[in-house]
Specification:
By secondary structure, this protein is α+β, with helices and mostly antiparallel strands. The protein contains ten helices and twelve strands. The strands form three sheets. Strands 1, 3, 5, 6, 7, 8, 9 and 10 form an eight-stranded mixed sheet that branches. A two-stranded antiparallel ribbon has the order 2-4. Strands 11-12 form a two-stranded antiparallel ribbon. Helix 2 crosses helix 4. About 26% of the residues have low confidence.
Length: 368
């Protein structure tokens, strides 16, 4: 879940949480922000969890399966494709530098495996859902609750622009909500799992916060969606047996598979006993990651230091939108992302659409 809570500097205002049962997604800027998820909080955020709060285990798909939501924050601002640069001889290259990615255009459609009314009742009195769309085969479908909102369509277009073909099919609904939270603890977006196995997710966006900072919003969308693709059944085993006998790392609601992205990330950046400091049952906030941020300049803000999932999500958002790095540790994280073919495609699509680079407003770490 992303909440407003000093994450990306004073000018930023996002927070998110990923809850895959206990994962969180987020970052620190002038707001308490994921956290996938979402991909969700947002930002996909947030997640069976994508960050800071537990959601009721209400089910929205068929047999009333349920899971905790993931918070995240989302921002808008799909840019224009870059113009072609003139050649040295003064002529213009006839070949485009990059083709702007195809973006799924909302075409409508419904589904009978998701109960939107049940989805709308998952806010515990804190979140009020104002608009919910089905997502049908990766395309934004009919409104199943409330009325269409152009701001939510903008958020969807950002997500669809950066996401490789086929991956949006992991979303079951895309929603907008209002939050009753006040002060610095306002959820900007979240992602939660809709079924028992991690095959369908919900991403929800706080539209009042969405408009406040488009730079942050786009970063949150990427952040939250990372909570989706790292929480799929191909990445984590949620059986009780797997949790009880986990030899990789358990975020509390499953066990990461040996070949999962998250376990590879943990091995690369959370070694030397760092992962042993994490309590999967502890609330994910910027405060819980501050001490790690103080001593490790590789984190993209204190929220990234709260858990490996949030660290991954913050770094992924920075990678997708080509943020300038502050340290060798941050650059190492982006280099790792670039070496993963499936992740590199997100960056390529953002570049082709003219969405990069964005400004690095993450609170700087390593200063303690």
């Amino acid at each position: 879940m992303k909440q407003r809570h000093g994450r990306r500097g004073a000018a930023a205002l996002t927070a998110f949480t990923l809850i895959l049962g206990a994962c969180a997604a987020g970052s620190e800027d002038g707001t308490d922000v994921s956290d996938e998820e979402g991909v969700t909080d947002e930002e996909f955020v947030d997640d069976e969890e994508f960050v800071d709060e537990e959601f009721p285990e209400d089910s929205v798909i068929e047999d009333d399966f349920g899971d905790a939501p993931v918070d995240s924050v989302i921002e808008d601002g799909v840019g224009d494709a870059p113009e072609e640069a003139p050649l040295d001889d003064g002529t213009v290259d006839e070949e485009p530098i990059d083709d702007v990615p195809d973006v799924p255009v909302p075409t409508g459609g419904s589904r009978d495996d998701i109960d939107c009314q049940a989805v709308s009742e998952d806010g515990e009195g804190i979140y009020t859902f104002t608009t919910i769309h089905y997502v049908v085969d990766g395309v934004l479908g009919d409104v199943c609750l409330g009325e269409s909102d152009d701001r939510l369509l903008d958020a969807w277009n950002v997500l669809a622009t950066i996401t490789p073909e086929g991956q949006l099919g992991d979303l079951g609904v895309f929603a907008a909500f209002e939050s009753a939270e006040e002060g610095d603890d306002v959820t900007l977006a979240f992602v939660n799992i809709l079924d028992d196995d991690g095959t369908q997710f919900q991403m929800s966006v706080n539209l009042d916060s969405y408009e406040a900072d488009l730079n942050e919003a786009q970063l949150t969308i990427a952040h939250e969606f990372s909570h989706v693709f790292t929480a799929l059944s191909t990445q984590i085993d949620r059986t009780i047996e797997a949790i009880d006998n986990c030899t990789t790392y358990s975020p509390g609601d499953g066990c990461y598979l040996d070949d999962s992205l998250m376990y590879a990330w943990i091995q690369e950046f959370w070694g030397d006993g760092l992962i042993d400091e994490i309590d999967p049952n502890e609330e994910i906030t910027a405060d819980t990651g501050q001490l790690r941020c103080d001593v490790d300049a590789g984190f993209f803000g204190p929220y990234a230091g709260s858990s490996p999932e949030e660290d991954f999500a913050e770094a992924f958002s920075a990678y997708v939108f080509d943020l300038e790095t502050y340290s060798d540790g941050q650059q190492a994280r982006l280099d790792w992302m670039a070496a993963q073919p499936g992740l590199a495609e997100f960056r390529a699509r953002a570049e082709a659409a003219g969405l990069t680079p964005l400004v690095n407003n993450f609170e700087e770490c390593g200063l303690g």
